Amino acid sequence: MSFCSRVFWLSVLPKWESAYFKSTIDPGWAPSLKLGHNNVTEKVIVEVVVRNDRAEHRETKKRKIQEEAEALAARKEVERHKAERLEAERLEAEKVQSEQNSASEISGKNCKKSLAERQICSIARRVDCEKFLSDQPDDATLATQQTWT
């Protein structure tokens, strides 16, 4: 209700009704009602006080509901963040596990290859050593060669 329409209604209503009407619009105005002033009766004052009490009760109830809704929204937000964090950790763990599995498969192949390679190298070394030793002169030949030089 706009200010102009309030002024119109206040000017049209009888004095006690205007007081009652003002009190319903502005709860802070109710205490200024005085018995016998502007044709205000005790009944009007009681009605205004009761109406203001109901309005305060409604406002309090609305405020509580709003606070509960905000608290619930905050809890849901926290739970959502927690679920996202857990999902990210789960995905990271799966990724690490996958990398470890692939690394162990690769290292297993490398171990097999390196074992085979080691065996081949070992055989090659033995062959090379035997060939090297066969190419080397024995100690007596070596001693005679050293004396000639």
From TrEMBL:
Superkingdom per UniProt: Eukaryota
Segments forming a coiled coil: 55-101
Keywords for the protein's UniProt record, in alphabetical order: Coiled coil
Name by which UniProt lists this protein: Uncharacterized protein
Organism: Stylophora pistillata (Smooth cauliflower coral)
